[in-house]
Amino acid sequence: MRRWVWVAVGAAGGILAYRRGQQMVAEARERGVVLSAQQVGLSAAQAVSSARVMATGALAAVEARGRTTSSQSGSAAARAMAAAPRTSDGSVNRRSGGA
User: Fold this and answer.
1) Alpha-carbon separation of residue 47 from 31, 42, 52 (angstroms)
2) Nearest to 59 by CA among 69, 67, 70, 71
3) pLDDT (tens digit, 0 to 9) for every residue of the chain, 99 residues total?
4) Cα 55 to Cα 99: distance, rounded to the nearest angstrom
5) CA 28 to CA 47: how far, in whole Å?
6) Could you report how far apart the first and last alpha carbons of the chain are, in Å?
C-alpha cells in the first residue's frame, strides 16, 4: 500500500513538473517572439539610417561634381599629388611647398 502512495506522489510530482516546464517554454517562446520582433525593428531602423546616410553622401558628391569646373577626373587628393613638386627620382617632395 505504501508503494502505491509513493507511486501516486511521484506521478503527481511528474505531472506538475511537466506542466510547469510547458508553461516556462510557452513564456520563453512569447518573450522570444517579442524580442525577435524588436530586433527586426531595430535592424530595419539601422538599415534605413545607413541608406539615408549613403544617399545623402552620394547626393553631396553629385552636387560637388556639378560645381567643379575642372575638366580633370579623379579625387582632389589625386589632383594635388599630380601637381606636387617631384624629386629627381620621381617621388613627391613632401618638404617643399608646405604651409
Assistant:
1) 24, 9, 9
2) 67
3) 778 888 888 899 889 889 998 888 888 887 777 777 777 788 888 888 888 888 888 888 877 776 655 555 557 777 776 777 777 776 766 665 544
4) 35
5) 28
6) 103
